[in-house]
Amino acid sequence: MNQELIRPILTVDIVVLTLHEQRVHVVVQKRDKPPHAGHFALIGGYVRPEEDVSTAAAAARVLRDKAGLTARLLEQLMTFSGTERDPRGWSASVAYYGLLPYQDVAQQVRRNLKMLPLDRATGLPFDHDTIVSKALERCRRRAAYSSLPAFLLPIAFTQSALRHAYEAVLGRALNDSAFRRKIDELRVIEPLAGNVSKATARPAQLYRLGRGHIVEFDRTV
Amino acid sequence: MNQELIRPILTVDIVVLTLHEQRVHVVVQKRDKPPHAGHFALIGGYVRPEEDVSTAAAAARVLRDKAGLTARLLEQLMTFSGTERDPRGWSASVAYYGLLPYQDVAQQVRRNLKMLPLDRATGLPFDHDTIVSKALERCRRRAAYSSLPAFLLPIAFTQSALRHAYEAVLGRALNDSAFRRKIDELRVIEPLAGNVSKATARPAQLYRLGRGHIVEFDRTV
Question: pLDDT digits over B49-92, tens only?
């Protein structure tokens, strides 16, 4: 029973993704303690068994307490582990990806938070580059078959904004009329009666997700 | 820094899947210690930071040392955690799924190992029912777009055996000629020159996976 006493470090790291100027950005935070103090890294922290009912709860708490953020969608990615990833010793980090609208991040005036466009989200400490790249791979794959990109938008959005969110995550342009037809057939969004966006020259109908949670499709968008 | 000292239990659990009489089976092991001593459960154990370079290494070690098995494909599923899942206290278990041919399991004469067909793989201790169900969901989804089912077969197999493996994982019948055409186009298998199976009335050509690792397709089988 000896090995029960040697318990590794258990942490959570969250790849916070948002959409700004039609590009996916990763939200990173300046570390205030060693290792890598002063460097920007993924938002993360220790799992606290005495207060977190699960690692998912730990991820939500760390996001809230350290960055003042609440993800609209928070899902487990995978666990990264070993001796090499953290100079403090053998550690396992359960990684999550969290999606939220730009407005939610912009409201946070904490100076230790920063948004990096994907092509500049490299050179992060620990194995965070690998975690970011795995999160993007997962999000891209899920985006083709689910309502995932909608969680990068505010509650109310136009169909164009939704298409732009899909395009940003998928990394390719979509035909507008084909996209509208598919989204309509898949019935994931519903019009917000009487609500139009005044952000564009011509008023555009506003929509919201018909269900609160992520919906999987049986075919690609 | 106080919370660094309170470290939860970290374990691995492996959903070992094999193919027997054209049905997917889960390999379970009788527990020799409490909790749940004498009950069959997923093969699992503690992560040992002093000898395991990662949780993946821990899963391979546990599988080898406790059950004498080596999976042909061993992949991370996700991490299950919390206060409720193990009476010993707050725990996190990094779950893996492992695929291997029936012959490898059949060779293991350990009396504490048992193969359960999927419909009888319920009522397992801890949250193992949930872990099994998530593993099957993941394998089914991956099977449609990858060479995953081939890892349930021996190194050399006929095209019919490969189709049966896909059918068993996907849970639906496939058209034989359409399947052969797709498998041929996707170039995942290669004929073993001069090798034929004598298991059937008419000798059938034997094949092997062209690459050792799992291959993802860009369209469904």
Answer: 999 999 999 999 999 999 999 999 999 999 999 998 998 889 99
Q: Which residues of B fall within a CB distance of 8 Å from A90?
A: 49
- Mutate: best of B10, B97, B137, partner A, most A CBs <10 A: B10
Q: By C-alpha distance, which of B19, B23, B12, B14 is closest to B151?
A: B19
Residue B202 burial class via C-beta count within 10 angstroms: exposed 0-12, middle 13-18, buried 19 and up = exposed
pLDDT in tens, A119-168: 899 999 999 999 999 999 999 999 998 999 999 999 999 999 999 999 99
Q: Which residues of B touch A (CB under 8 A)?
A: 3-4, 6-10, 46-50, 53-56, 76, 78-79, 81-83, 89-90, 92, 94
CB B55 to CB A9 under 8 A?
Answer: no
Pick the CATH number of A2-123 from 3.40.366.10, 3.30.450.40, 3.90.79.10, 2.30.30.140: 3.90.79.10
The helix or strand, by DSSP H or E, that contains position A104, with its residue range, turns out to be helix A102-106
Structure tokens at A43: 């938002």
Number of H helices, E strands in chain A: 5, 9
Q: Which of B183, B11, B211 is nearest to B94 (CA)?
A: B11
Instruction: Write the ipTM.
Output: 0.90
Question: For A24, phi and psi rounded to 5 degrees?
Answer: -75, 135
Can you give the pTM of this predicted structure? 0.92
Neighbouring residues of B54: CB distance < 8 A, sequence distance ≥ 6: A81, A82
